[in-house]
Predict the structure.
Amino acid sequence: MTVHALLEPSASIGHSPDDLAREILDRVEEEAVLSLDSLVMSLSHYSWNQVLITVDRLAREGRLILRRHRFDYTLFSKHYAA
């Protein structure tokens, strides 16, 4: 099994990457500021890897803001006035 296959969402789970992206964006818009750890815990029906890959993609696309402070990562709504 390849590393790529391990990181991809499982088809048997029934959750698409678009569903996860929508859930993440909804949660970030709702909270405005959210730690990555609390996001991962609240999306327990997805793996840590699925959440991290999707957050990375959304940040690179400019759909949310991801910042690191020491060992903590924080997500911000792109509408959040910092």
Summary: The helical segments are 3-7, 17-31, 36-42, 48-60. The two ends are 43 Å apart (CA to CA). Residues 6 and 49 are 9 Å apart (CA to CA).
